[in-house]
Amino acid sequence: MEEKPPETLDTCDLLRAIDSLYEPDVRNGFFSRRDADTGEIRPDSVSEHLADVAAFSLSTTVPRSIQVHFETAKNLYAYAWFVYRFFPVAEQQALTSLEFALRERLAAEVAQSSRVGVRHPRGLKNLLKEARDRGLVSNDRFSWAEERALQRARQRAELQEIQEMQRLGLTTIEVNYSNVKPLPEDFDHDWIGTFIDTLPRIRNTYAHGSGTLHNAVLRTFEIVSELTNQLFAPAR
Fold this sequence. Notes:
Layout: E1 32-34, E2 41-43, H1 46-54, H2 64-79, H3 86-112, H4 124-133, H5 145-168, H6 191-207, H7 218-231
Antiparallel strand pairs: 1-2
Helix pairs in contact: 2-3, 3-4, 3-6, 3-7, 4-6
């Protein structure tokens, strides 16, 4: 049997040399973004890359150790401009920050409990469930809840107008969005239930070793920052 030659690593996956330490990873050059003012499609820039993750922050009510942990995740994302494989590492660090926050917050809850022998659960999935059951996080407190409900209301209005257009035999119709208001059911989405199902799977994939590689991790940063801020929000 003919032996296969050993596989060689791609240059961009090797340890950087001193003269290439600050060069952007070539894989970041494959992506572009639309200019908000002109609509022009143009290459991404390092300043925009940094601004993307800088948008996510933890409240000053979050313990300092957790803030530092999350800032480390943000720095990993920032340096992914130079080492593309830092993107999944940044996402893993962000998810670990969430588990850290859940453990700390639930430990405080247990310490205040009058029940003898109460212990908080282990594992990201069980921690999220416990935080939900104790009312420390809730779907109605996400900053995106109202905007997503409005999107659903607009989609319903569009569908209704399309049906009306078809009924009247028209080829075009104008949708008046000014009168569109979300209904209670538009807010009825179990975000936390979705996160309980998905976030632990993502974290476990990384924790046990994976070749997963993509740069679409900012949504995880958004989720982690929102959940963490809810955990340590002042009592209402």
